[in-house]
Amino acid sequence: MAGLERPRTNSITGLLLTGFIIASLPLALALALAVFYVDRLARQSQVTVVQAVEGTQGGRRLLNQITAMERNVRQYLVVQDPQLLAVYQDTHAAWQETLLRLEELSLSVEQQTRLQYLIQREAELYSLFRFGTVSTLRHAEAVAGFTEVRDVAREFLAQSLGDVDEAVEQLQTLAIDAATKLTWIVVATIPTVAALAGLFAMLIVRPLRRMAGAIQRLGNEDFTTAVRVGGPRDLQELGNRLDWLRHRLAELEDQKARFLRHISHELKTPLTSLREGAELLNEQTIGPLNSDQQAIAVILRANSQRLQRLIEDLLDFNQILSRTFKLNPKPVEFAPLITQVIESQQLVWKARSLHLNVELAPVKLSADRQKLATVVDNLLSNAIKFSPPGGTISIRLVLAHAQAQLTVTDSGPGFDVIAGDHVFEPFYQGQTMASGHIKGSGLGLAIAREYTLAHGGRLEILNHGTPGGCIRLRLPLENGR
After folding, report:
1. What are the φ and ψ backbone dihedral angles of 222, each rounded to 5 degrees?
2. Hey, what CATH topology would domain 246-325 get?
3. 3-state secondary structure (DSSP) of residue 333
4. Per-domain residue ranges for the chain?
5. Region 327-476: CATH code
6. H helices within 80-129, ranges in order?
7. What is the C-alpha separation between 249 and 254, in angstroms, rounded?
8. d(Cα 155, Cα 226) in Å, to the nearest integer?
9. Which CATH class, in words, describes the domain spanning 12-204?
10. Does pLDDT of 328 surpass 60?
11. Which of 48, 65, 277, 387 is deepest in the core (most CB within 10 A)?
């Protein structure tokens, strides 16, 4: 249809997959960032730990080696044993190897300065013993030099141990920083994913709600509002089918209304002639009738009246279905109107030997007199239909709570417990049957309810499941519409 909005995807499945993928992107990004920060923390921890351990171990080796070299030199200066000098040279080679390893580390400026001092100063001392001879004057200088180197090596080791503690603090700081960033990532990801999921849910739910509303309108017999459903293509197609169904239901409703209107008018013309003939026979206009002929004339008259009542009910119900009836509210004295309706059905209830207890308070209200009379007439007809011969019908009108309240009670079997308000539906047939041979159209109470609602009133059953049906009519004094 031209008014339908363009779908974003071809189907609900495609929209769900698209929504799932897009909603997963923030989660994937959060996971990637989490992996990145954890990997960086792991790498930094590894580098820091390795450097701290190697720096500490190297510092200990330097201190041990310089101590050993000092001891060898002191012994050599005393005993002048060449083997001691060879041991010194071997220790010096190990010292050099340790220094090379330490130079490869990322040391602080202060540690690098100490390391360079150790390299240079130990090299100067080593040059004194390189050729195996040391003058007596330089003995004291050599011993003092080794003492200085040993002290600097001890400072280097102490600083390396301090660097370990500092490295631990840095790792803790990095861990806290990573945890904080991961927390913010989670905090940002959850509402983002929820918002995206809600967006795509809305894209699916909104057309479904439109479809539900369209179905509800069709159930309420609203066939004028077009069905427009957006979203995925398959939902649009369902919307198109619903709109097609709306057109078909509207056509069927129109055909039904035309049929009822046509058949009612077609029946009304011969019925008028039939009623006139029955009235002429009853009035004995064409001559006196014997008792059998009078009985036949009474039957003709009663059944013609009943047939007219059925046709009028069909016409009224047709107006209700097509929503074409309009109220013409005017001030109405309710009690005289009820009395008039009772008198119009006098032949019927007297023929069944029914007794009527009537209590009518003076009530004036704004209403459509003809339709209000139809409501009362249908309520009374229902009571007559279900009352046994010789039974009693109570009609009571009071003014209460700014409302006119008319209660009609019969002495019949009453209403089914399971019936509820279904008795006001068209053509509803409960388990209780009408007394005698009186039958109705099945539309009386349905018409009464619609006319009552049009006046802003209400019809209600007061005694479910007990003998004697009781219906109360509540009407506002001022027209509700």
Report:
1. -95, 100
2. Helix Hairpins (1.10.287)
3. strand
4. 12-204, 246-325, 327-476
5. 3.30.565.10
6. 82-103, 109-128
7. 8
8. 91
9. mainly alpha
10. yes
11. 387
Q: How many CB atoms lie within 10 A of CB 26?
A: 19
Cβ atoms of 274 and 241 closer than 8 Å: no
Residue carrying the six token digits 């009552």: 452
Helix, strand, coil shares, percent, the chain, to 5: 70, 10, 25
More confident residue, 356 or 283: 356
- Global pTM? 0.49
Instruction: Please write the tens of the pLDDT for every residue from 276-318.
Output: 777 777 777 777 878 777 778 777 777 777 777 777 777 777 7
Residue 363: Cβ-neighbour burial (10 angstroms; 0-12, 13-18, 19+): buried
Instruction: Sheet with 470-476: list strands edge to edge.
Output: 355-360, 392-400, 403-409, 470-476, 458-461
Amino acid at 218: L
Output the CA angle 181-185-188, nearest 5 degrees: 135
Place of tokens 């064409």: 286
CA 247 to chain centre: 30
The pLDDT-based confidence of 407 (bands split at 50, 70, 90) is: very high
For the record, the structure tokens of 67 come out as 């101590």
What pLDDT does residue 1 have? 40
> How far lies 188's CA from each of 26, 29, 35, 192, 433, in Å?
9, 11, 17, 6, 70
Across 302-402, the runs of DSSP E, i.e. the strands, are 330-333, 355-360, 364-367, 392-400
Pick from 210, 291, 275: nearest CA to 243: 210
Give 473: exposed, middle or buried? Use CB within 10 Å, 0-12, 13-18, 19+.
buried
